[in-house]
UniProtKB/TrEMBL annotation:
UniProt entry tagged with the keyword Transferase: yes
Domain of life: Bacteria
Organism name: Stutzerimonas degradans
Binding residue positions for ATP: 13-18
Enzyme class of the recorded protein, top EC level: transferase
GO terms (BP aspect): coenzyme A biosynthetic process
Any GO molecular function: ATP binding
Main localization of the protein described in the UniProt heading: cytoplasm
Annotated InterPro entries: Depp_CoAkinase (IPR001977), P-loop_NTPase (IPR027417)
Protein name: Dephospho-CoA kinase
Location(s) in or outside the cell: Cytoplasm
Family classification: Belongs to the CoaE family.
Length: 201
């Protein structure tokens, strides 16, 4: 039987990666949309060629995509960002679908920080949001990425609001304790998910 798909999301510093890693340890097939976004622009893939034709060789560094240079270009001009999204989003969707199709576990997980914003939630059968109070998000991210509180708050502004994410959630994992608590919650959800057909009761 084809596995059903769980969409796993959460804001920056929420602990979604730690949650996804624990699901993977339990034998669940996990596909990361961020990794798929990197795969589609690898050297030799057609997307990289199109990006270079559009933006010029300045977005390359030693034959690979120079993300910082590209980011600068698309932040300066919103139309360029739209062009890039139109090129990449269908390719990322196809890449994700191909990797999910390889799943042999009872359900598979698509991890995406932008599950709600990108509309990827329409590709999944059920949505799990790893939720954390904003103050804790900021504290964890500043500690982890050695970045400033202002930068973290700027990232939070472009991500979907907590309310928006929670509105799309079928399940919420409140991650305001330690790692052992998070892992116990993942195991509890996993046992529940094994009882579902197509992501539903």
């Amino acid at each position: 039987m084809k596995p059903w798909i769980l969409g796993l999301t959460g804001g920056i510093g929420s602990g979604k990666t730690a949650a996804a890693n624990h699901f993977a340890r339990l034998g669940i097939h996990v596909v990361d949309a961020d990794q798929a976004a990197r795969w589609v622009v690898e050297p030799g893939r057609p997307a990289l060629q199109q990006i270079v034709e559009h933006f010029g060789p300045g977005v390359l560094h030693e034959g690979a995509l120079n993300r910082a240079a590209l980011r600068e270009r698309i932040f300066l001009d919103p139309n360029e960002r739209i062009w890039l999204e139109r090129l990449l989003h269908p390719l990322i969707r196809a890449e994700v679908a191909a990797h999910l199709a390889d799943a042999e576990s009872p359900y598979a997980i698509l991890v995406s920080p932008l599950l709600v914003e990108s509309g990827q939630y329409r590709q999944v059968d059920r949505v799990l949001v790893v939720d954390v109070p904003e103050a804790l998000q900021v504290e964890r991210t500043v500690g982890r990425d050695l970045t400033s509180e202002e930068q973290v708050r700027a990232i939070l502004k472009v991500q979907a609001s907590r309310e928006e994410r929670l509105r799309h959630a079928d399940d919420v994992l409140l991650n305001d304790h330690d790692l052992a608590w998070l892992q116990a919650e993942v195991e509890r959800l996993h046992r529940f998910y094994l009882t579902l057909r197509g992501g539903r009761q």
